[in-house]
Write a structure and sequence with these properties.
alpha/beta, 6-stranded mixed sheet
């Protein structure tokens, strides 16, 4: 999860699921074009020969026009993907309903995508070896669809990619190519709440097969962590160690809507030390910050009200790799010290970036062998044994580390895949009996294949339904019907969403939130994706980044949750 906005100073850790890191949302530029009877080109400046980007728009000012390397003509697009931005560049055009179009582009770089927003298809290449490679796909517009946004993007931390001669071909194209009349502007979102730094979610190798609490003194005790059937919970992250555009919120001022309050964040002293520290926001950065005694007393008061207060480990900059048993043991002792000092209920694992990966040959999620996986599982089991049944354990992985495992797992049987793909699956599986809640970050995500073997993209209820259904139904890992990740109980699953448009990429309005909840819990109001798991009325609830952003946005997210569940 990430905590800063573009252009703001980053504090030592970021909030963001997890998120979390992701490309800014692209509204694009709508071209008011009246189609004629002829077939032809729909995009304007697809070869960037004008010398400027217009009417293309790129997230985070990441794009520019260069004269080398090019595919055709004298210019091409260059877009720089960073750890927090995939450098998405897009153009929105008018299209006709029920019509098939072909999108193509020549791309150069590592992990370059070509796709259509709004649930449309995408394709990608893991690398072009320094030369241009053609990507192409076809799509058919919906019965009422009149516009489409096409895009290219890279992937987090993979550097600059190039694109040239981008073409959208189909019937009814304007002839000759008109001068664009912009009716909108690119509107990048604020930095996302989670920071995915993984590789792409596309499908270079084919389609998978298969069917698809405790006392306020620091020692969690008391009731088991599994909730009673029918109870619903709202989970939020509290910016406790930094400030950003959302402002600082004192613990005592956290609204009563929040059932789980995740203190963001605990970070390691170094990536492989296992030594986790939780540093509260300094007064120079957070002028309204309370004293340690006030903070601790407010935590105790929240817990006395039945709220769960956890330390969240990781975030965007909090990379944690338990590569040795010494790091594992240090992790246990340092996390215990934080829990005891502040009187907390347990732990939230928000490992992102390069924290979790699978060694070559580690292909069975049920029997992991990679040290960073094995040691994390062991450490959490030790903490659970130390604190007993009242210990609360939650996880906030990104879709890359969970649902992408339906297609790819680790480096794959022949190598060459990103070793982080699906890397949370062995952790979730080994700890499923100890797990209180899994809330995958359904934001800052690329397109992900669902159990219908179709790609689903952020921006509406369908994405949340498809991603959550994978957890509630289970799925064959890497398409292997003999290696199925078992379903999780609905009472242990919540859906992660951004609280506001500023909080992360993938925000949906309350109406779409409610559509997703209707579909998952009642099989009502479903869109194009109908859950394979059936109605799940015990779905635990929602998670958001963040409590601070929700307050900043007038508590839209939490008020909608309370209204939906009648709280």
């Amino acid at each position: 999860m990430r905590r800063t906005l573009p252009g703001q100073r980053r504090a030592t850790i970021a909030a963001g699921t997890a998120s979390a890191v992701a490309a800014a949302t692209l509204v694009g530029v709508t071209l008011g074009l009246a189609p004629t009877a002829s077939a032809g080109e729909f995009l304007v400046n697809g070869g960037f020969e004008s010398g400027s980007l217009g009417p293309w728009s790129c997230s985070g000012n990441s794009g520019s026009v260069v004269t080398s390397p090019v595919h055709g003509g004298g210019r091409a697009l260059a877009a720089a993907a960073t750890a927090g931005d995939t450098a998405q560049c897009g153009q929105t055009v008018t299209v006709a309903p029920n019509t098939t179009y072909t999108l193509s582009a020549y791309v150069n770089g590592s992990y370059v995508y070509l796709g259509v927003d709004g649930g449309g298809p995408s394709t990608w290449t893991p690398g072009t070896g320094g030369s241009y490679q053609k990507l192409s796909l076809s799509f058919t517009t919906g019965a009422t669809q009149t516009s489409a946004t096409v895009y290219t993007h890279g992937w987090y931390g993979q550097g600059t990619y190039y694109a040239d001669d981008i073409s959208l071909d189909g019937p009814g194209a304007p002839s000759p190519t008109p001068t664009p009349t912009p009716t909108g502007t690119a509107s990048p979102t604020a930095s996302p709440t989670a920071t995915p730094t993984g590789t792409p979610t596309g499908t270079p190798t084919g389609t998978p097969t298969g069917t698809p609490t405790g006392t306020p003194t620091g020692t969690p005790t008391g009731t088991p962590t599994s909730p009673p059937a029918g109870s619903h919970a709202l989970v939020g992250y509290l910016h406790a160690s930094f400030a950003n555009g959302a402002g600082y919120t004192r613990m005592a001022d956290v609204p009563n809507s929040w059932d789980f309050i995740n203190l963001s964040f605990g970070e390691p002293t170094s990536v492989t030390s296992g030594d986790i520290r939780f540093n509260r926001c300094p007064a120079t950065e957070c002028p309204t910050v309370e004293s340690d005694d006030e903070f601790k007393a407010a935590i105790a008061a929240k817990r006395a009200q039945g709220k769960k207060v956890l330390i969240s480990i990781g975030g965007q900059n909090g990379q944690v790799q338990l590569t040795s048993t010494a790091a594992r043991d240090t992790f246990v002792s340092s996390v215990s010290a934080i829990i005891d000092k502040w009187g907390l209920d347990g732990l939230d694992i928000d490992f992102e970036g390069h924290s979790l990966s699978l060694n070559t040959g580690d292909t069975d999620f049920r029997n992991p062998t990679s040290p960073v996986i094995v040691n994390l599982i062991s450490a959490v089991k030790t903490l659970k044994a130390k604190y007993g049944p009242g210990f609360v354990l939650t996880m906030a992985p990104e879709t890359f580390f969970v649902q992408l495992g339906y297609q790819y797992y680790g480096s794959g049987p022949w190598g060459g895949q990103d070793p982080r793909a699906g890397a949370y699956l062995p952790v979730i599986h080994a700890l499923r009996d100890d797990l209180t809640l899994l809330h995958v970050q359904d934001y800052n995500s690329g397109s992900i294949m669902g159990l219908d073997n179709q790609y689903h993209s952020m921006g509406g209820a369908d994405f949340h339904v498809a991603m959550t259904d994978m957890l509630l139904k289970g799925f064959p890992v890497a398409g292997n019907a003999n290696n199925v990740f078992p379903a999780l109980p609905a009472s242990k699953v919540a859906i992660g969403m951004p609280a506001t448009t500023n909080a992360g990429n993938g925000y949906v309005a309350p109406a779409e939130v409610n559509k997703a909840l209707d579909c998952l819990t009642k099989l009502a109001n479903c869109g194009t994706y109908v859950p394979r798991s059936g109605a799940q009325p015990n779905l635990r609830g929602l998670m958001t980044w963040s409590i601070n952003w929700d307050r900043f946005g007038g508590q839209e997210f939490s008020k909608n949750f309370n209204g939906y569940f009648g709280r």
